[in-house]
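DATA SHEET
Item: assembly model
Revision: 1
Owner: S.N.
Input lines:
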Amino acid sequence: MTDPTHDAPGSSGIEGIAAITYATDRWDEARRFLADWGLTPVAEQPDQQQWETQNGAQVQVRRIDDPSLPPAIEPGPTLREVVWGVHDDATLDVLAKTLSSRRGYWADCYENNRIDAATCIGALDPQGLRVAFRRTSKRALALQGSPANPWGAVQRIDTPSPVYERAQPIEIGHVVFFTDRLAEMEAFYAALGFVTSDRYPGRGVFMRCAPQGGHHDLFLLQLPTGQVGLNHVAFTVRDIHEVFGGGLHMSRCGWKTQLGPGRHPISSAYFWYFENPCGGLIEYNADEDHLTAAWQAREFQPGPTVFAEWAIDGGIDGHTRRQPKVEASGAFLTEKRG
Ligand SMILES: [Fe+2]
């Protein structure tokens, strides 16, 4: 079964994130990190590493001083471009009309109102990040997360839940940016067909790229400090067990947890965040809410209990499978008494 999140086109014609481009000065560390993260290496040249997720979403890594890159929205390693996949040429036509008045508008192979297979259009968003659109090249996958057995709806019979040794991300689930112009950014993406799922009024906006689909593909966050830049990129995995398996593997490889594992009340997703040598944070994410056009956006006030239903600070040690600094003695932690 393919991921239902993006099976239904919805009315925007935008399917999800097709590609992202990082720029970093931590070249070898980036290679090791993305391999441990579970991405598949596609090619490497002196100035470019190419990786992909299981469904064919592309992760490019470039040198931080590469003059051919779009402008950076912050100093240091960060994202330089986000490419969204669209279903058809008609959607590209509509997006081209909307984007043509924007700063930095460009179109490849877009002539005489006809689009060929190589077409990619884009512009700079109000923050100065290059955002582009092209026909989707996402692969359909026959993957399924482990069914759960909630009270009243048992789905997993005579079948244990899986334990993963490591993760293999399926797709690029969402990107999150700090912005100092939240209203302008929300209006820009809404004009392209994005829909607001939930918001922290004046502070943050969760947007999905089509009326029907996963809770958010884009989250924009405005801090009192006015900080601008990448917060994180989330990679979707099959289920909570793969979040754990992936996070424990990253921990065993020596990578640093920023926060997690844990669960967000907004979107309901399980998460585990790590520091990424390519820029910002990176997240394993599973089990997010699936919304339709009937969903009414909610409003929240920011706070730690709104961000996480629960979360483990400092991660879990991949060897002991306990919190760091908690001694693993006995076969079961519950053997200790008093
Ligand atoms: Fe996230």
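QC remark: Helices lie at 27-37, 89-99, 182-191, 240-252, 304-307.
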